[in-house]
Amino acid sequence: MSAPALSSRLFPSTATRDARTLITARGMRAFGDGFVTILLPLHLTNLGFSTVQVGLIATATMLGSAALTLLVGLIAYKLNLRELLIRCAILTVITGLGFAFVHEFWPLLLVAFIGTLNPSSGDVSVFLPTEQALLPRTVSDAQRTDIFARYSMAGSLVAAFGALAAGIPEWLERHTGIAFDRAVDGMFLLYAAFGVGAFFLYHRLSPGLEPKHEEKAPLGQSRGIVYRLAALFSLDSFASGIAVQSMIALWLFQKFDLSAGTTGAIFFFAGLLTAVSYLVAARLARRIGLVRTMVFTHLPANGFLMLAPFMPTVQLAVVCLLIRSFLSSMDVPARTSYVMAVVTPAERPAAASVTNVPRSLASAIGPTISGALLTNTTFGWPLLIGGSLKVVYDLTLLKMFRDVKPPEEK
């Protein structure tokens, strides 16, 4: 695909400079998340940590993100969102440096908690609700789902190449003699460098993009629907935490003895499929609505997730995971667009944080559970349990919100 064609896929023709900046920053962060997701469990096990300790560090990353997002949610209407993104970029730099140079469990647990490291296939950091609150200000209601689809696609597409980059340490060890652990430390330094890049990108955002003080408010008339959505999203995220990408990678390492490079290639193709699915999701949402798009794509995805542990060969297990990757994330742009649509514009920063905080908290518990399960068996219990809980979420969401329509569907 040519550069102009790729640009037109990532950026709608009507995208403003601010929209392009936010999407570019999302992609930059996603590349780092892509290789960190795979290298993190390998890095920690090579340091001598048990699978339970790996799960605890993954949990700490999510708990820390949730705590920071909660703080932002409580006072979002008082904050300058552009400045918040700049400060979080600095925190990304600190996180990368910490994982590159700190190799003891308790100090690493602290770095994981206060940092921005993301062990999942999706963004669970404070960046996400902040950017979600700003993006709708760059487009009309009719374009809102499409811009969120491009935003999500940029994240998954670039994260796929990040996953492929997880094979760099093995390549360096094989061809240059650089020790694997040293090479992984270098990848965490690269993660820090992406934080520097994001810092400068966020400085490019127009001051006019920032909502005026009177245009921001705590949750008021939309409180009820936001709290119900937050509770449901928490169930979905708890299930996602159990089957978080880092722990799926750990399961593949244990069950099929795959290398980091091979696992990275699998998640590369999974990321490409996910990226394509976002554009499909935007078109599907225009035809059948946001809620139906969320549910009718998520249900079969969960079925394939639950099938993967029963597959007798790595090839069949990977096929299940790849099909699941194509279907499972179509709900992401639809869900974000839906939340932004059913609240007032002034409540968007608060709504974005409130719906993401419980999700981060709920998903934080999952990796520790997965680590404990994988300590005792190589059977993919995390995938089976996570998929089952997600089915419950899908059916409940459809029952509760199928008649609550966003403005463009009324």
Core attributes:
410 residues; mainly alpha; 17 helices
Summing up helix and strand content along with how strands pair, one would put the structural category as mainly alpha
Low-confidence stretches: 1-8
Distance between the termini: 38 Å
Average the pLDDT over all residues and give the rounded result.
84
Q: What percent of residues are in strands? A: under 5%
Based on CA atoms alone, the radius of gyration comes out at 20 Å
Order of helices and strands: HHHHHHHHHHHHHHHHH
In DSSP terms, counting alpha (H) and pi (I) runs of 4 or more, how many helices? 17
Shape descriptor? globular
Main beta sheet: none
- Give the fraction of residues assigned to helices: over 70%
Number of strands: 0
Commentary on this structure:
The two termini are 38 Å apart. The protein has helices spanning 3-10, 17-46, 51-75, 81-101, 105-114, 127-134, 141-164, 168-176, 180-203, 223-242, 245-256, 260-288, 290-307, 314-328, 331-341, 348-376, 381-401. The chain is 77% helix and 0% strand. The longest helix is centred in the first third of the chain and has 30 residues, at 17-46. Residues 1-8 have low confidence and may be disordered. The chain is an all-alpha fold and 410 residues long. Helix 2 packs parallel to helix 11. The radius of gyration is 20 Å and the shape is globular. The protein has 17 helices and no strands.
